[in-house]
Design a protein that fits this description.
The chain has 249 residues and is mainly α. The chain has one domain. The protein has 9 helices and no strands. The longest helix has 33 residues.
Length: 249
């Protein structure tokens, strides 16, 4: 009974991925990304603090995935990227997805086999273009949505962008290789959004961290002050040594 209900629900989800892809993927992706934020709030102690759960953070996470990332990802992964790397397979899938019937939806959900060369090509293009743009977009969005200024965005890029991008390259290429090779186009966003529960936890923790960075002019002033203090200390030490010498008679 339960398996039959799950089977019907899965078939319905597949159909909705064909007939209403942006709404279906946006809502499911937003919920999964929000789950990652809940995990992050637990890990960083927000849930256990005096103020407790921060719904604004979850809302910001949901909006990013549902309204920003998933629509862009849908057009990138289901339309543009396949046409750049495997145009024949992309055309066949687009033709199959043009009908709204359940049978065609099921057919469109079948994996479209592409060669390993095309798969690797998709991973390289994805991680060279779309991945860096998404990370930059998220860092900008998270900083501004949490009340930050342009200076905060610049500080986030200076202190965290490269580290997050390198972490991205350690995780996503292998996952995308399997995803692009074996998962149907219409379900690839779902796979990514499922994996992104852990990734969004990392991003939420990263976005919540305040960069300990000051403006260059403040750093220069601090450096000058430190040099002056060191010089003063050295002068004071020399004077003390001079005073300790016995007076000449």
């Amino acid at each position: 009974m339960a398996m039959a209900a799950l089977s019907r629900g899965w078939a319905r989800y597949n159909e909705l991925c064909i007939t209403s892809p942006l709404l279906t993927k946006g809502v499911s992706g937003g919920l999964l990304f929000s789950l990652g934020d809940l995990f992050a709030q637990k890990i960083d102690g927000t849930l256990d603090s005096e103020r407790g759960y921060n719904p604004k953070r979850t809302a910001i996470a949901f909006f990013w995935n549902a309204v920003c990332y998933t629509p862009a990802g849908h057009y990138w992964y289901c339309h543009l990227l396949p046409r750049l790397v495997a145009p024949r397979a992309a055309s066949a899938t687009a033709a199959a997805a043009s009908s709204a019937s359940t049978a065609v939806a099921a057919a469109a959900s079948a994996p479209v086999r592409i060669g390993m060369r095309e798969t690797v090509g998709k991973v390289i293009i994805d991680q060279s273009l779309f991945g860096p743009l998404v990370i930059g977009g998220y860092m900008t969005y998270a900083s501004l949505a949490n009340g930050g200024s342009r200076q905060d965005v610049e500080a986030a890029f200076r202190t965290r962008y490269w580290d997050v991008l390198c972490a991205n390259w350690m995780v996503w290429p292998a996952l995308q290789l399997v995803n692009f090779k074996f998962v149907p186009l219409q379900l690839q966003i779902l796979v990514m959004n499922t994996a992104v529960v852990g990734w969004s936890t990392f991003l939420a923790l990263n976005a919540a961290a305040k960069p300990a960075v000051r403006a260059p002019e403040l750093d220069a002033a601090a450096s000058a002050a430190a040099d002056a203090a060191a010089a003063s200390a050295a002068a004071a030490g020399t004077l003390a040594e001079v005073r300790a010498l016995p007076a000449n008679k």
